[in-house]
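From the methods appendix. Each design record in this collection lists the discretized structure first, followed by the designed amino acid sequence. Records were kept in a plain field format so they could be parsed without special tools. The example shown here is representative of the layout used throughout.

RECORD:
C-ALPHA CELLS (144 positions):
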C-alpha cells in the first residue's frame, strides 16, 4: 500500500476511533503524522484523563496504545489476509515517565505478516528529546 493511501486509511481509522463509544475512544485525540507500508506514526499530548494516581502516563493506557497503534500499522501492510486478527501476545517495557502536557510520538511497525501470525513493534517517545517512554511487541493471530 502506498504511503499516501496508508495515511488516508490511518486518518479514517483514527476518525472512527474518535467517534467510537467503545474502549478505543481513549485514543480520540491522536494525530496521524505518517504511515503506510506497514507503519503508523501518531502523536498525542498527555491529558489529565491519561494519568495514573502518581501523575504519570498510565501503564494500562500505554499497553492499549501499543496494542491498537501497532494493529493500525498492520492494516497498512500488504498481506495475505485483511483481518486485523486477535492479540495472542503483548509485551511492554516501561522506560521513563511522561507527564501532563508532554507531547508523545508513537511509532509502530508491522515487522512480518504471514498467513497465520503477524509480528508487530511499537515505541513511545518524548517529542522534545526523543527519549524512550516505552516499547512493546505484539504477536497477532491473523488467520481468521
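DESIGN:
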Amino acid at each position: 500500500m502506498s504511503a499516501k493511501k496508508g495515511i488516508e486509511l490511518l486518518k479514517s481509522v483514527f476518525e472512527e476511533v474518535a467517534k467510537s463509544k467503545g474502549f478505543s475512544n481513549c485514543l480520540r485525540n491522536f494525530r496521524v503524522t505518517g504511515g503506510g507500508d506497514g507503519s503508523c506514526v501518531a502523536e498525542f499530548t498527555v491529558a489529565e484523563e491519561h494519568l495514573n494516581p502518581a501523575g504519570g502516563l498510565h501503564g494500562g493506557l500505554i499497553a492499549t496504545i501499543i496494542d491498537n497503534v501497532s494493529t493500525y500499522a498492520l492494516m497498512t501492510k500488504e498481506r495475505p489476509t485483511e483481518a486485523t486478527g486477535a492479540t495472542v501476545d503483548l509485551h511492554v517495557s516501561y522506560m521513563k515517565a511522561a507527564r501532563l502536557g508532554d507531547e508523545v510520538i508513537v511509532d509502530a511497525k508491522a515487522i512480518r505478516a504471514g498467513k497465520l501470525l503477524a509480528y508487530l513493534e511499537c515505541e513511545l517517545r518524548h517529542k522534545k528529546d526523543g527519549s524512550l517512554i516505552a516499547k512493546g511487541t505484539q504477536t497477532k493471530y491473523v488467520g481468521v
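APPENDIX NOTE: The chain is about 25% helix and 35% strand.
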